[in-house]
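Researcher: Sequence of Cytidylate kinase follows. Predict its structure.
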Amino acid sequence: MEKIAIAIDGPASSGKSTVAKLLAKEFHFIYVDTGAMYRAVTYLAIQHKVPFDQEDCLVQLIKKYPISFEQTGNGQLVFVNSQDVTEAIRQADVTSAVSEVSAHGKVREQLVRIQQELAQSGGVVMDGRDIGTTVLPDAEVKIFLVASVEERAQRRYKENLSKGMKADFDSIKEAIAQRDYLDSHRTVSPLVQAEDAVKIDTTGLTIDQVVAKIQAVILAKGFEIT
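Model: Prediction complete. Tokens:
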């Protein structure tokens, strides 16, 4: 397949990461989980007791502790300064603070630069909240995934239980709604659908059905799927 860039945006638990991973694997593309990068910075702030409102200090953490990814047979691993933080960045304390950390312009500037470098050679699937608008504005394919808050909360609830994590459905639902508000109202790179993105509502759809819809979009744009 032609080495295009596929940008997938959408709110929390809309299915972005799962779908992006499947597409990247199918097309033999690089997968970049930008959300994991912001979570990694939040994790670092917690570990080093850096207040979430200290923008310059957060930037220094990014510079001092490199964030990297490793593809394995069991999925993608996330590392901070060579330490595997794949599970740690999904804990509740990180989830509750990541919106505040990701709202800082200088933090986003640092991470966007890294994300754009990863995508320079093409053949990339990248998911997040501002990929089609800010990170990869020239991406050949842009997708904006949405789903009801109820369904997204159910997904996160089941995911947490499957990982042996504590889970309270009502708290998760409230947290997702709050994050939607914060992400869509932040001053820097708010969550918004790019004008040329194709919106797909994943409510009630299986992952395979969502992947099929995205493949149809790719074909409709004239790119071959092999």
